[in-house]
From TrEMBL, chains A, B:
Its main location: cytoplasm. L-histidine binds at residues 104-106, 131, 147, 151, 301, 305-306. One of its GO terms (biological process) is mitochondrial translation. It is found in: Cytoplasm. This is histidine--tRNA ligase.
Amino acid sequence: MADNEKPQGKPPAAEKKGEKEGSKAGKQAVKIPKGTRDWVGADIQVRDKIFKAAGEVFARHGAVQLDTPVFELKHILAGKYGEDSKLIYDLADQGGEMCALRYDLTVPFARWLGMTNTQSIKRYQIAKVYRRDQPAVARGRMREFYQCDFDIAGEYDTMIPDAEILRIIVDVFEAVGLGKDVTIKINHRKILDGLFAVAGVPADKVRTISSAVDKLDKLPWEEVKKEMMEKGLESGVADEIGEFTKHSGSLKKIIDLLKASEKMMANESVKKGVEEMDLLLSYLEAFEIPDRVTFDLALARGLDYYTGVIFEALIELPPNSSSESRIGSIAAGGRYDNLVGMYGRRQIPCVGVSFGVDRIFTILKQRHEDEKQRAKGVDVYVMAFGGKNGLLKERMAVASELWKAGISAEFSAKVKPKLPQQFKAAETGGVPLSIILGEDELAAGKVRVKTLGLADDHPEKEGRLVDRADMVEEVKRQLSEGQSEAAAIPALTKSLDDATIVEKPQTAA
Amino acid sequence: MADNEKPQGKPPAAEKKGEKEGSKAGKQAVKIPKGTRDWVGADIQVRDKIFKAAGEVFARHGAVQLDTPVFELKHILAGKYGEDSKLIYDLADQGGEMCALRYDLTVPFARWLGMTNTQSIKRYQIAKVYRRDQPAVARGRMREFYQCDFDIAGEYDTMIPDAEILRIIVDVFEAVGLGKDVTIKINHRKILDGLFAVAGVPADKVRTISSAVDKLDKLPWEEVKKEMMEKGLESGVADEIGEFTKHSGSLKKIIDLLKASEKMMANESVKKGVEEMDLLLSYLEAFEIPDRVTFDLALARGLDYYTGVIFEALIELPPNSSSESRIGSIAAGGRYDNLVGMYGRRQIPCVGVSFGVDRIFTILKQRHEDEKQRAKGVDVYVMAFGGKNGLLKERMAVASELWKAGISAEFSAKVKPKLPQQFKAAETGGVPLSIILGEDELAAGKVRVKTLGLADDHPEKEGRLVDRADMVEEVKRQLSEGQSEAAAIPALTKSLDDATIVEKPQTAA
């Protein structure tokens, strides 16, 4: 489900008119549209790590990848997002079909299910979605941002796909290295609805009261109660909701708590929900993840279309995190059994999860920076030391040989580059290894392979002069040694000033 | 450079008005916008193989990936595509900035260079671009399609980056398995321009005559000559152009040919171009690819902004290909030294190539189908044979263990699935291996691991009953044996009817 990045602002209708005409006087500014960004270099490496990890987990569960067009026919999106429809980007009417940019990945999936004769599928899609929201770049709210959705569609026995989705959430966060930091809160719409009914909430107020309950993780009880009463609840009714929604704990604990309440269990909806949660617990045990899930009766989730389990993955931030950078939900979803019928003749029950790629990215990037990894992946810089015509063709031939061996390599695209410039280029790029060509050495069939950034007293500081035929092997040897040496650095230099390590050209990723 | 998929049709202004209101009476059709497609399953696997292969080659050359927003400010795109500007998709005016979908990846790259303080970079981008062209899906002309661009920007010595681009084209096609089938045609704008001048083409007619020359690979000389004369050339002038542009061959051959013509070499532009091609040849020799490149004096390329070498990679189709499926250019590009200055204060010389992903996809898909690979990547289907509650939790636990070992696995999401249904599901999904659970075997701590689709007289037809503790190892053993067996099939069954192989559940990718 694609509701993880629910927009929270107003549409940008109030933007300054001036922007439309471009900046100031004269030449129009060369800039990027508001609320969008260019991804480049190290950021893409971190982002791709997330995509790769998630994609591998999904494939392991037999999922098929879907890639839909960036725009859909306008009527496909119409009437699906309630008030948020005003955030949809329309394409201009230039003749022909009326289209709009996709707002999430759920509606395109439902459209695809409706168009094809697919009865059941596990599908995933990782792609950008578009919302004409007021951007807040610092807080990570963008107009173009990534979603990563995994859904199981089809008629299956109760709670089996739901349990697998939860297992997948655990697997994905373990794959990106956040397994220990994430907990999953879970609740069931049938229990929540029944609870509201038992407490005395009128049927037409259930959704609006539900959205008040959803704020309990951010606001104190008093404020939430105030909102409920403003929405027309009596104080006693609100208190009864508050009494139950304050409970959270292991699935077993909350199931037992509910079972112990005759009043609750007398409600058909609660009873059904508890039975399903009981079944879910037994499946989570088979999947070995019951301890990764917390049953939280206050979890409500915003979207209307959920019909069964709902869940939200939360990251525990380190204690020194500022409230500015506080990050809550990084994945969310639930069961929605009545949505696909809007597009096809058949109703297909679905359960799914949407991962907040940008939020996961922000966390991983922080850690990535802590590790001071290098942005580029080039392993070898091929240099000339003097020589006729800067030994350009010789550098080309050496680079060519490295590429053929699958080793990434660069050289200066100058005929006669100076040696310090070449070292500088290698250092700037964080390249760990150099091959230095000299006229006399080449005549003798030799090249120098040298790990960069070694200490002055390191025995291999000057590199090794090797036969040209042994070059590739020597490069591989020094690269793998450099890696183990680099890996050892943090332990060895724990007491050194951080700056000592930063200034030094890094020797491995 | 992103001109590989040059649009050739008219804008779709003439589309039936009716489409705007949706189909027929009543409910609006659930469909996808014209000229777009959903990518799914096996197609995505083939496509990703191209992306991965290209990305690895680019990284090996030290390239950085760039991912720009799907839309740009409208004025960034304005005035960059000449007549084709009418094919740009605008976003509707909903207040705020005026934006349009990207038309290619070159302008966003130039915009990014202009915005950032980047002096030099190797960058690549693989992404969809948008053109409001009349779609011709059968011929592969879409409104949303992929481009894969690699460019080298920066002030470098003559022909060094140009040679590297050519080497990259060779590397990418080798990486996707088309190395043997692709040849690269190359020419130089300075030579072409000089040749026109020598022949007597007026300066203001050079571009339009150039575009006539560009048709020489599709039309007979007589028709091209006719077009030139209609464009105002005298017969003798056209003939002189025809005399030179008919030559193609190795770089050395054509360079020698030009050098032998005093009349040509007297032209400064030709002389400069020939010197550069001479230099390029020496670099291609250092890169070991001079035999992959053909110097074709008739290659002109459509776009105005090329200033130096231009090239086009062509695939040689098998002799039995129908003309319908004839595929010509699958990558193209050249040097463009004056484009980036339109966006920044600095002019940055660039040379680049755009790979035609959709065309490469079509070729690989054809081969992929020939190999009859399975669409999904699931290795194991976990089944129950009888047992209490369909042994669901036991199946879950087994799947869970396989996932943990990195093995892809599925099971029926039914509490009590029938055995034939489970076999059918495995067969449909092309799953090579099954684990079959039985109550008695489980009680004895055993499971059955069985390769699917073995012949009736195969010694392992019934699979192997192994200790639960040895299950993962046995799965890995049978998977790797199944793969080598499947690899041997084409050789062993060469004389059998194809259908024999198709009907059989496939045992490996």
